[in-house]
Structures are given as structure tokens and as C-alpha cells.
Amino acid sequence: MHRVIAIAILVLVAVFSSARAEVLIGVSSALTGRLAWFGEQGQRGAEMAVADINAKGGVLGQQMRLITADDFCDPEQAVAAAQKLVGDGVVLVVGHYCSGASIPASKVYEAAGVLQISPGSTNPLLTEQGRANVFRVIGRDDAQGIVAGNYLAENWSDKRIAILHDGTTYGRGLADETRKQLNKRGVVEAIYEEYTPAKNDYSAEIASLKAANIAVAYVGGYHAEVALMVRAARDRGYTVQLVSGDGMATEEFALIAGPAAEGTIFTFPADARRNPEAASVVERFRAENFEPAGYTLFSYAAVQAWSQAVEKAGSLKLQAVIASLRGNQFDTVLGRIDFDDKGDLTTQNWAWYVWRGGEYVPVE
Amino acid sequence: MQTSVAGLFRLAEMLERLGIRGRLLLAFFGISALAVLATVAALYAFLQVGDVVDRITTDRVPSALASLQLSRQAERVAAAAPSVLAATSRAQHNEVSAAVALEMSRLEALRTDLRDATLGTVPLAEIEEAAIVLRRNLKELDSLVVARLDVVARKEELLNRLAATTTGSQRLVATGILVMDSRLPQWRAVAADTSLSPDRRAAAMADLVQAIAAYIPQQKAQREISAVNDALVKVANAPTPGDLALILFPLRRSLTALEKASMEIDEKLRTRFRQRVDEFKGLTDGEDSIPKAREDEFAVLAQGERLLAENNRLSRNLTAGVDRLVATADQEIAASGREAALVQRYGTAVVLGSAFLSLLSSVLVVWLYVDRSLLARLGAVSQGMLAIAGGDLRAPLPAAGSDEIGRMAEALSLFRDTAVEVEEKNLRDVEEARQRLVDAIESISEGFALYDREDRLVLSNSRYRELLYAGLEAELTPGTAFEEIIRRSAERGYIRDAEGRVDEWVAERLWLHRNPGEPWVQRRGDGRWIMISERRISAGGTVAVYSDITELKQREENLAEKSTALEALSSKLAKYLAPQVYSSIFTGRQDVRIASQRKKLTICFSDIAGFTETTDKMESEDLTQLLNHYLTEMSKIASDHGATIDKYVGDAILMFFGDPETRGVKEDALACVQMALAMQKRISELTEVWRDMGIETPLRCRIGIHTDYCTVGNFGSEDRMDYTIIGGAVNLASRLEQEAAPGAIIISYETFAQVKDTIDCEEMGHVQVKGIAYPVATYRVIDLKANLADACRGVRTELPHFRLELEPELMSADERGGAATALRDALDRLSHKPGQ
């Protein structure tokens, strides 16, 4: 009799422990502070991807669970967030958003054997460090800078151009790549300057641009500062053309800049919301009153690519998943994607967008 | 009475007839019978004890042990319940729950075992009932913990949602606040700038009012979001249900305020903001709210406390039941122990009684019979035997008798008679052997002495006494210590070595005596030599043999004297001979007899040019000294190079290489030329010395060398011989010497041919020698090639069809011109290809 009981207990324990097994996935981004809107994009994209995949049975028959860590887009905070996620036992981190956070965090993940897929960090250095565990589903600033430099040279070679950056890994990196391409095309900027981010008032900077008779300003930085600049310019009737990069892709830009947002242009990868593969996902986001702009679908795609790689590898082991990510193509909301040996996308498609009526639309 | 007395007598007679063997057997049978009786009794007692112990071990002890185990298990199960409740995670709960179930199942198993082991005497029913109820209680506790964990997990999930909602709603209002912040400096500037037109300022003020109107609801909303968030967090940790109700009131008020504020939010964000407010509402009220989750938790906790109390009671019941079981088992064990002790006591009494009887009968048999009629007589026989063994052959013996002991006494007296006879015969034999030994050692011509283990004199012959200790014979009695003997002889001056150092010598001599080895010789005071040979013998003593070897010693000394005289003579003789000749004669390699042989030798003749003129004016002593000095120096060089010095003729020296030892013709020739060069060099060095001695003109030496076959050997009469060389070659060497300029060395072609590879020479032309039909080619030795600088050295090449010998140093300008022309011509010819 007692043997039967013992066996029954063992079976129960076994069933419980297997049913309880779940795969932990980390999301780290700026969930509060000035870049919180980007953080929300990343988090909601990953949340919906996890929910969708779990509904279809999870990965390798196991359910995924999402853990978030706020990095404030700060290099030191990013390392702390990465250590927290590693400590919780995640196998994948979707993040970080800022290049300045992704790069220091990648060292922590490599040491712990955790895979990192960034949905928004564009600085080339991220994948140039030779860390096998690092991938990204977005283009690189050396390509983005060429597109931006060419555009400036083709449209405003006869105007006075200023190049500004906020001194962050992303902002300075993008501004320098753009400037390099612009100079290569034979056009020299009139001003090259650094500005301090996270201020509330940029009227002094705008006043000096106006005094220097600048017609076009290329800004390597994030949306809030650009919005405050354009607002300050329009308030004093100064019609300088502001041009920036992918750090502008949030509706908060228009909310801060107000009507002044009209006409500001920036580069961003091809708008994934228009992909037929993304249609149902976009529809569900909108039903929740959330516009899946910016990096939302990139974050969704990062989880998709990883789950498909795991299924193809048949294992959650880091080396197997890395090999699978490098060796296969993945059908995602971004379309069909694949990675080179550095962890970058093999194809990049930068395009131009302009702010019209509170949202950004492709430049015709 | 008479019959019984008669019967006893008959019995005594019968016993008498049985003899000792029969009577002893009878006695032992009696003792053994009693011992067997005692053993049987003991066996019976042990079997009884064994039965009782078996009963205890098979029946009562297992059930008692099982009861004890059951009691321990029951305590363990009772202690498990709190650990189930303490689980904080699903995994931990599974682990603890499995462990408790395992303990429980073990309890069941023990219970079943106990029921099988006992025969219904143990009160088990009570325990069984307690265990069933306890198991039900544990199951309830387990499911309660599962429920509690679910509630806690749900609460955690809700708190995460609250955090997400709070962050999301804060994000929505943060934008407006940022815009407001960015515009403040502008308004400040307008307010401060008095130069602006009133219209512009009024417009700016209107703008400001509008902005503030839009800003205030946002700020209010932000405050209320924080309030709602704080209240919900407090709800999640409310200590009692009463606190819960207290917090809910302000929470609902904040929610209403937040809803009102949402109406005034920027319309672009309003929908999303309202969504967030709805989420807050969901978290506050309804099935999926935080207060509900906390209430469920309270309910589960209350249920847990109730079940735990019940568990305590049930555990106590179970433990009490088991305790009673153990008490029963204890009583049974005590009863078994008493039974076992009783049986043991009986057994012990029986064993002790039979052992006592057996002992008593043994004592009687031994005392009455063995001791009185056997041991007393055996003792007398044994005393007689001991006395005989101790040498007392006259001791009294017991009388003979009819039984075994009587016969033994008879045999003993026979034995004694025989022993007396044997002893007398042995004494005669020993005396005879001793006399023979004394005669033998007396008859040998050497002195003989034997010392015992303690180095005391045992035996010595008369030769020993007269040889070593004449006049001391009286003191050499057997038993005198060796040390005493030698010390006495040393003190009286019998020993030459011991004079003045008696103690030291005695110690040395004792050491030699105790560590005997090779025979050695001792010098006696009267001049005689004694050879002493000592040897250890197996019994531990020492045998010493002394021989007089004085004559032998004297002959040896005579021989040594002659030998020394001969050695002195031979070393004087050696100076008149070449060292090689001397050594080959004295080592016996060459016989001293008239004999000669032909050999190829290199002969060297040296002479001082104009010696007579130079030394004409010198005194005879100075001349002798100069000549000896010169010859000694030259001879030394010659010996160093291995030359055989044939003879000195005044200032001339004749030397040769190749006999009695040769290194080969070529090597001999080379050694000769090298020696000549060394001599010339030494003479030029000595010139300085001689100048100091008063010889104005320096002595110059001429040397001639020739290599050829010569006859070498001993020439002369049987009485006087000379080891020398003869032949035309000697004359030729002498002639070459005369041809040489002072200070030069002239060699013949034959020598040149042997040394040309190593020695640089200059051709001198031919000389006519008496006794030789053809003119002889001569060469002047320059130096060792190795000593010459490259430039000075001639060019020599020899190939098939080509030969070149060039001595540029020796050529005049014309000769050089001629040679150059010839070489150029040769070069031209060589550069043309054959056949062109």
C-alpha cells in the first residue's frame, strides 16, 4: 500500500516540475524618463509577441514569461539591469533601446551566456565588438549616416548646414557618420557642435544657429530635445529645416513640439506597419488604442526570430541558438530576415519620413 | 559384620591384583562420572535459559522495537505540518509535500509491520484511527498551501499590473509637464521685457493662462495616480481585514478624482488615459482586484491556523497511542527478563552442586590413593635418579617391589652399577689424550702457546718458554694473564720496540693479539727476530706459534745492501750512455752484446764554428765550464725532441733519430729538423749569457742533417762495447755540417723530401762528398712554415701536368720580371680552349 502512495507522489512531483518549467525572457529599455515612450514601444511589442507565441504552445512546448528591467537609457544603469535579468535566469534579452545602454550590457550577457537581440540600437560598435551572443533587428548608423549625408548634399549643398549632436553613443555616432558622408560629397558644414541633452530650454542654441544664418540643422539625438529645439525656433519665427535619425520615431515628438513638428524630417527603416505580415498584429495593437509605431514591431520581430531559431535548433542552449540564428531565415512582422556572422541584418532599408498632422508619414 | 569385613578384604586383594594402572583407571572413571553428571545438569539449565531468550527475541523484542520506531515516525509526521505551511514557492512546496507524504507512507508501513509482528496483544486500533485522521488533516493542509501560493502569485501578478499601469499613466501626463517646463523661460522673458508692445504682452499672457489651464488637470492627474498607486500597494500589505476596509475609502475617492481629471486631458491622449483609469478601477474592485486577493489571502491564512491547531491535536493523539503501545512492549520485555533470570538461577545452582561433588571425589581419590601409595614411592625413585644424575653414585635407593614402581627401583639400581663402571673408564681415557697432546706440542721446533677465552695461558711448550722468556720460566704457570706476561717481558727489556714506551707497546700488542691476522715479526732485545702467528680458535681462545727467523733476516739485509750499491753504480754509468740506450738496456729490452742492424735513421751533426779560435785565450776551467754549459743545454733540447745522443767530440755532437725507438722515418726526420731549429734559437738566446761571461765573439753553430740507411748497434770487443752508428750517411751529415754557414742548418735532399710539407727550405746547390759518386743536393732550413707570414712564404702547387714553385722573397727584380712574363704566357695558354 505505502509503495503505491510513494510512486503516486513521485509521479505528481514529476508532472508538477515539468508543467512549472517556463522560459524566462527579459526586456530592458528606458521604461521611465524622457525616453519612456520608446521603452513602452519595446515592452508592448515583446509582450504581444510572447502572448501570441504562448497561445500557440510556446517554444519547445514550454511557456515563456517576460521580465522587465528599466535601464533609464543610462550606461551604468544598463549594466545593473542586465545583471538583474541574468540573475533571474533569462535566456534572451530583447533590448536595450539606446546604443549607449546596449553596448555595456552586452558584456554582461556574454559573460553569463545570455542571448541579446536589440530592437533599436543602431551604433555600429554593438556588433563590432566580436561578441557572438549579440544580434539586432535594425540597421546600422554607418548605413543611416550615408543616407542622411547624401540627402543633405543633394538637397542643400548651397545652404549653410549645421551638424549638432547630444554627445551620447547614438547621437554623436550618427552625427559623425552623416558628416563624413556629407564631406565626402564635397559639402562642408558651417557648424559642428555638441549640445547638452535633458534640458528644458534650447532657445540659446537656436538663437546662435539663427545668428549664424543656418538654413538646415542635422541633429544626432533623441526626439525630446529635437522637439524642444524646433518649438523654440518656430516661436521666434525662425524657419530652419531640422533633420534627424531614427530616434524620432514616437508620437511624443509631435506632442512636445505641437504644431512646430510639421515638416521635420528623419530617417527610419521601412515602415513595418505596412507589411502584410504585420497586418493582424497592427490591428490588435490599434484595438488596444496603441499605435505600434517606431520600434514596437522590431521588438515583436526579435522575439519571433528567436523563437523560430530555438524551434529550428531544437534546443535552448546558447551555442545552438546562435548557430541557428546565423544559419536560417525567419518570417517576422518585418518580413523575411536573416543575420550575418556579426549579428547584423543582411539587408537594411533606410527611408525618409516627415511629420504631418501629429504623425510621421513617408516622404513622397 | 564378619561377611562385610571379609568382603572388604577380598576387595582389597582384588585391588592389589589390578596393579597401579587398573587402580588409577578406576579412580579416573569415578571422577569422570561425576563430571558428566554436572555437565548434563548444566546443559539442561542452558537449554531452559535459551528457550526463554528465544521467546523474548522472536516474540517480544521485535514488536517492542517496531513500537519504538512507530513512535519516532509519529513524532516526525507531527513535526512535518509546520514545514508544509512554511513553503513560500511552488517548487519548495512540492518538495516539502513529497517529503511529508513519504514520512506518512513510512508510518503506514511501520503500522502494517507491527500488526503482522504481534499477535493481537498490542492495542493498535487506536493508533490506526489517529493515523487516518492525521493523514486527512495533512492532505487538507497541503491543498490549503497550494491555494495560499496561488493567492500570493495572483497578488504578485496584480501588483505587477499596477506598476505597469502607474508607469503608463505617468508617461501620458509627463509630456505636457515637459512642454510646460520648456515654455516657462519664454514667458519669463516676455514678462521681463518692457520694450514689447502691450498687445504682444497681452497675447503672451493669454497664451500663459491657456497653458496653465491645460497643465493643471495633468498635474492633478499625476498626484491622483500616485495616491491610487500608494493606496493599492498598502492594500496588498494590509495587516488585518479591518485595515483593508479603512484604506478602501480614500482609494475610491482618489479614483473618482482621477476619472474627473481624465476629462480634461489633451484629447489625443484622453482615450489612452481613460484606458489606464479603467485598469486602476479593475485593480480596485471586482473579482480580479487587489483587495479581493488580499481578502482571499486572509481567509486562507485563517483556515491554515485552524488546520494547524487540529493537526497539533491529532499528532498528540497519535503520539499518546504510540506511547501506550511502547509502554505495553516495555512491560512484556520486563516480564521476559524476570522469567529468564529465574531459569538462570536454577541452572546455576545445579551446575555449582555437581561441580562441587566432582571436586570432592577428585580430592578423595588423589589424597587417599594417589598421594599415599604412588607419589611417595615415586618421589623416592626420583630422588635416587637425581642423585645419580648429580654424580652421587653411592646414594640410597628404594627397595624393589612387585608393582611398576618396584620394578622401576630395581632397574635404577642396575643403572647405577653400570654408571659407576663407565665413569672410571672415561677418567682413564681423558688422562691418556692429555698426555699425547703435551708430547705433540713439546716435539715441535716452534714455540707454542694456547690462551683461553679470558686470555690466560692454558698450555705452552718448553720451546716457547726458552725462546721468549728465558729466565722467566718459573712465572709462566698456566692461568697467568697474557697481558701480565708481555708487560713483564717488556719491563725486563726483552722487546726492542718496547724500550722506553712499555704501556704504549703493551696496548699495541694486546690489540694485535685480540685481532690476529697475518703473521708478523718481532725484534727481540737480544737481536733475534721472532715471527709471531696468532689465530683465534673456535672455542674462543687464541693459539700462538713463535718461530725464530733471525738467520733469514740477516741474509735479507745483506742482499739489500748489495742491491743499493748496484743501483748507485748503474746511475753513474748512465751518464756515459744515451738515455734511450740506458733505459732499453736496464729495462731488458735490449741485450748488451755485439750485434747490429740496418735501419733508416736521421743523423744530425752539430759543431761550433771557430770554437778553437774563440776559446784559445780562455783558461782551462772557464773552457770546461763553457763547454759543459753548452753541451748540457744542447743535450737537454736533444732529449726533449727524442734524439739519441751518440757521442760528443769536443764541441761537436753526433745525434740520431730512429733507434732504439722510432716514430717512423718521416716523423723522425721532422723531429730532427725541429730540434736543430730549437738548438739554433737557444744558442742565440745564450749569446747574451756568454757575453756576460767574457766571450766577445758570439758562438755560432753549424748543423748538418741527413736521412739514410745506417748500421746501428753495439760495436767493439767483448770487454768494451760502444753503441753507435756507422756508414756513409754519417760522413755525409758531417760534410753537410761543414758546408753550412755559421748559424745555419743544411739538410740533404733525402731529409728535405721528408720535411718539405712542414718546413720551409731554400735550395742550396750540390756538394761533392768523398765516398759518394754523385753530387748531393742540399737545402738550407729557413723555419717552420707555420711560423712564416703568408707574404714571405713561397707559392707551391703540384697538379698533374702542372708544377709551380715560387719564392718571391728570394728573387731579384730581373728574376721577378722574367717569372711574371712566364706566368702571363702560361695564363694566356691556359685561357685558350683546347682545339682552337
Write a concise synopsis of the structure shown.
Chain A is of the alpha/beta class and 364 residues long. Helices cover 46% and strands 18% of the residues of chain A.
Report on this model:
The complex is a heterodimer of chains A (364) and B (836). With 364 residues, chain A is an alpha/beta fold. Chain A contains 13 helices and 14 strands. The longest helix of chain A has 20 residues, at 36-55. The termini of chain A are far apart. In chain A, 51% of the residues are buried. Chain B is an alpha+beta fold. In chain B, 67% of the residues lie in helices and 13% in strands. Chain B has helices at 2-86, 90-117, 125-192, 198-236, 241-263, 267-284, 290-389, 404-443, 462-468, 482-491, 502-514, 550-574, 579-586, 611-615, 620-641, 665-693, 728-739, 749-755, 813-831; strands at 447-451, 457-460, 520-523, 529-536, 542-548, 596-608, 644-649, 652-657, 701-716, 721-726, 745-748, 759-767, 776-784, 795-799, 802-806. In chain B, the strands form three sheets. In chain B, strands 6, 7, 8, 9, 10, 11, 12 and 13 form an eight-stranded mixed sheet that branches. A five-stranded antiparallel sheet of chain B has the order 2-1-5-4-3. Chain B has a two-stranded antiparallel sheet with strand order 14-15. In chain B, strand 9 and strand 10 form a beta hairpin. In chain B, helix 1 packs antiparallel against helix 2 (90-117), helix 3 (125-192) runs antiparallel to helix 4 (198-236) and helix 10 packs antiparallel against helix 11. The termini of chain B are far apart. The chains are: A alpha/beta (364), B alpha+beta (836). At the A-B interface, helix 1, helix 2, helix 9 and helix 10 of A face helix 2, helix 3 and helix 6 of B.
